[in-house]
Amino acid sequence: MQRLSSFCVIVFLSGFTALYAENFESMSVFTYGNTKSKLFVLRLYSNGHYEHLYCTKSAVKVDSGLFDLKHNKLTFDSHSKRGGNQSLKEKHFFIRGERLFEKRWEAMIGTNCLGKKTIDSIYFQSIDYNPLNPNPTVVKEEKTVREKNPSDQAKMYFMRLLNDFAPNYKSFIDTNYCGPGCYYSVVNNVSVPASKDTTNDRLISSFNTVVHESTHHFNSHTEICVDPTIIIQLERTPTFTSEKFLVIVPKEAFGKIFRLKSYVGNGSGVSANLSGIYGIMDEFSAYRNGTKASVEAALSAKSAKNEKRKLDFIRESLPTYFAFYEFRLFISWYLDYGAKYQPAMHKALMENTNFRVAFTLLEQGFMEDIKMMEKLVAENPSVKWSYDYYEKDYVSYCKELLVGQEKTLITFRIAGVTAQNYRQFITHK
C-alpha cells in the first residue's frame, strides 16, 4: 500500500513527503529448499530492499540489502559483511511468472524450478519468526513478568475501534487481521519496523492501513473482497506484467500519477505488476475497503458526536481515496494493451465474468464511498485544505485521462450489475 499522510508530514512548497506501508502484496515472497530441516525465504519489497532468510530448526539467519529486477533477472547488493547460506552476494535468480529459477535458460523453458511465490501468512512474519520451528521451547522463570506484546495490544485497540465505529468490518478484520508487525512501514525509502507505541493517537493513524492490509490478507487467487458482505469467487486467466502497458501511457503521467511507478513501473516487484490485472484489482479492493471503513467510521463518530474521532477517520480516508482514479486508469491501460498486443489473454479476461462483476461492484462502491467522504469534508472545513490539495495535484490529471479511457471501462463493466442483484450474473463452474 502506498499513501500520502495528510496529518503527520510537513508540507513544503514542492509538495508532500510520501509515507507508505508495504506488506503482503507490496512484498513478493518466494520459498525454496523446502524440507523439514532447511528452508530459504526470499522477500522482495517494492522499495527495492530484500531479505533472504535461511531457516533451520534451531535458527534463522538473514541477509539483507538492495535488489534490482531487469528483464526478469534478479541481482542483489548485499549489506551483510559475512557470507553463509543466507548470503546473496554475487548471486542472481530469474523470475518467470510466480516461479524462481537459477538460470535464464531454465526460466525460458520452465524447467528446474527453484521455488515459487507464496501468499502463506507464515512467511510474512517478522524475521525473528522461524517457520520451521514456530513454537520453540522457552525456559520460564517464575519471577519474570511477561512483557505485553505491542502487536497484541494494537490488535485489541483496532478491534475496539471497529466495534465502536465500523462494526461491519469487525468480523472480517478479526479473521484476516494484518496490523503493525505484519507489514512494514517505509519512510523515504527506508524500512521502519513496527512501533512499540500503542497509544491511541499513534494507532489511530494506522486504521486505514490495517483494513487495507487485512484485505490483502484475505484476497487470493480465487476470491476478492468487494466489501465484507460481498465476496466474489473467481478463476485467474493468463496474464502479462503490467509494466508492458507503459508504452501506451503519456510520458508526463510518470510525474503526475502518484502510485504509477510504485505499482506498475518498470521493474516493480509488487503483485500489481507481476500478477498483471489481477494484482491491480487486489490493490483496488484493498484501497476501496480501507477508504470505505474510514468513511463508515467517520459517519459513526459523527452520529455519536465524537468530533475528535470523526476528524481522525476523515483524515484516514483522504490519503487513499484518489487511488480510485489511479487504479481505474491502470486497469483501462492494461485492457487496451492486451486487446492490441495480447489478444488471446485479453479474450480470456473478457470471458472472466466473475472478475468483471467484481470490478463493476468495486467501482460502484468506491464511487459511493467518495461521495460520502466529500460530504463529510464539506461539513468540516479543517480538513478541506487536504482534500483540495489531493484534488489539484493528483485527481484532476487522472480525471482528464479517464475521459479518454471511459470507452474501455464501459466495455469491461458488466451492464446492469448492482450490489443487490450481482448473484444473478455470477457464473459457476
Short description:
The chain has 429 residues and is an alpha+beta fold. Helices cover 42% and strands 18% of the residues. The protein has an eight-stranded antiparallel beta barrel with strand order 5-6-7-8-9-10-11-12. A four-stranded antiparallel beta sheet has the order 1-4-13-14, with no helix packed on it. It has a two-stranded antiparallel sheet with strand order 2-3.
Kindly state the number of beta strands: 16
- Please give the share of residues in helix: 40-55%
Distance between the termini: 33 Å
Radius of gyration from the CA trace?
A: 22 Å
List SSEs in N-to-C order.
EEEEEEEEEEEHEHHEEHHEEHHHHHHHHH
Low-confidence stretches: 4-25, 137-147, 186-190
User: Which range does the strand content fall in?
Assistant: 15-25%
What is the count of distinct domains?
Answer: 2
- Strand order within the widest sheet? 5-6-7-8-9-10-11-12
- Tell me, what's the shape? globular
Mean pLDDT comes to: 84
Sheet with most strands: 8 strands, antiparallel, barrel
Which structural class fits the helix and strand makeup? alpha+beta
Specify the number of helices. Answer: 14
Oligomer: single chain
